[in-house]
Design a protein that fits this description.
150 residues, mainly alpha
């Protein structure tokens, strides 16, 4: 017996489902970009700590520290901020490209980078790679490339 409220012709096509999956993934990439940006901003503490450590200590106190102690703290902060904010920007760009059905290779690359950001990035990276490499999603990206005026 069939349900009278569901019409078999109303079933979404695989392309429509893939488009909906890409829209959902784009939202999650924006969320991960925001989370990554905030976590990377914590490295500002390293910048401030390194600068204050070297500024507030006397020459005698500094002589008891390893050479370049404050500078090392600052470089850790700079590296953390640059890496984190870059990954956040890449996730935001990837999300926008998913909405436009462009840049499939960049999306796969960013998903691969996200695999190291456990647990949220790992889950999102795996699902993104799985969805983007499936034939219906590939056809969305491919049709976007050959569509005139796109």
């Amino acid at each position: 017996m069939t349900d009278p409220l569901t019409n078999p012709s109303d079933e979404p096509t695989p392309r429509q489902r893939a488009a909906e999956h890409l829209r959902t993934l784009a939202i999650f990439h924006y969320v991960l970009a925001g989370m990554t940006f905030l976590v990377a901003s914590l490295f500002i503490v390293y910048l401030v700590t390194g600068a204050l450590t070297m500024r507030e200590l006397t020459a005698e106190q500094r002589s008891h520290l390893p050479d370049g102690f404050g500078g090392h703290w600052q470089w850790v902060g700079i590296a953390g901020i640059v890496a984190g904010w870059s990954l956040a920007a890449l996730n935001a760009i990837s999300a926008r490209l998913m909405q436009l059905h462009r840049g499939r290779l960049l999306t796969i690359l960013v998903a691969g980078l996200n695999l190291a950001w456990a647990p949220a990035g790992t889950c999102l990276g795996l699902v993104t790679i799985w969805v983007v490499t499936r034939p219906p999603a590939r056809s969305l990206y491919d049709s976007r490339a050959v569509r005139p005026g796109a």
